[in-house]
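Posting this for the archive.
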Amino acid sequence: MADILYTYKNSVYANITNKCNCSCTFCIRSLKDGVGSADTLWHEKNPSKEEILQAVRDYDFTGFDELVFCGYGEPTCELETLLAAAKIAKEEKGLKTRLNTNGLGNEENGRDIVPDLAEVIDSVSVSLNAPDAAKYQEVTRPRYDNGFVKMVDFATKCKAKIGDVKWSIVDVLPEEDIEKCKKISKETGIELKIRHYS
């Protein structure tokens, strides 16, 4: 059984599903089985909602103040579990909550999920991945048409409802693309975080 909760740097992470609606060319899943304290993040079968909620309740969060929803899948593919686990993290454990996402949760769930997220998620990091629609489709390979537009719309809605939202890109992008991403950051009013690819 893969780890449901694992630590990486200064946070505890929740690996609630291996489902994903993208197939990114640079995805860490294709390079190694685990991250941080987790030997493997590949679930033999995705854990049940009950197993995840119990894992959050049983975990000793001493020394940590945040639970981040990010594993080897897209957390919004298991929206109800995500919302329930975040509620427990906030109300029972007194933690801040962060969602690391590809930004296609509205498309995945067929509706605007941002109001629901806003009730239990304190901050959101959206993987921008590319500076325009064509490169985004090529690199991220989403299951949906117009993924770039939908991802930007999701991030903008999160900015309006949740406030603490960041774009993230990896530093392997060409300098020209990084500059274009900085422009998107300025246009949307959403801070850009450039992560080192490792």
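The two ends are 25 Å apart (CA to CA). Residues 169 and 194 are 5 Å apart (CA to CA).
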